[in-house]
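Before going further, learn to read the protein records used in this course. A complete example follows; check for yourself that the lines match position by position.
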Amino acid sequence: MKKLIVALTLLAGCLSWQANAESTLTFNKEIGPLVLNGDEVASDIFSSPNQLTLESGTNQVLFALGQLVVEDGRRTKFNSVPFIVRFNAPSDDVALSYQPFRTMEEAKAFDKDPRFVLKSASGEMIPFQLEPLYVNGMQGMKNYEKAVLKYNQKETGIAVVAIGQTSTTPVDQIKPKNANTGSSQRMILEAGFNNLSAQEQQAFMMWAMKNLKNAS
C-alpha cells in the first residue's frame, strides 16, 4: 500500500510541476512579438518586448520582422508579413533568431522562404510549425489577436492550436479531434502502476472504478 501512496504522490508532484513550469522566449532585436497564446502582447509606440514568458507545453506566437536594408543605395526599413509559430516549450529558456540580410532583394527572398531558428539555452534545436499570417487592416490598426483567433477557428493552418486545448499537449501530439492521443500524465501513471504489487494494483483498480468519470 505504501508503494501505491508513493506512486500517487509522485504523479501529483509531477503534474504540479508541469503546471507551474515556465521558460522564457527571447527574440532578435529585429523581431517583434504580436500575440502570445491568443493574447495580444503589450507594447508601446516605440518598441516591443524582446522576451516573453512561455507556458509549459504548447505555445503559439505571432510575430513580425522589421530590419534596415539597403535599396538603391539608401537605407530603408523592411517589414515582413506576420508569421505564426507553434512549438512545444522545453524546461529551459529558448531563443528565436534568423540570419540577417543586407539588401531589399535578400529581404524579399527571405519573405518568400523564411528561415528561423528556435534553440534552447542548452543548444537543443526545438522543432516548430511556422507559416505567414496575412492580417487585413491599416498599419498600426490591425487586430492581430482577432486574426489569430480566426486562424485557429479555421483549423486548416499548420500552426493551429485547437480552441480550449491545454498548454501541456506537446506539438507532436496535436492531432485532429477524436484522435487517440497519449499524454505525459498517463505515461507517469502507467509507470507507477507497473511498480505496484498485484494486490496494490487490484486496490488501485477498485479505487479507479469508483472514481471513473462518465464519458461525454
Summary: The two ends are 32 Å apart (CA to CA).
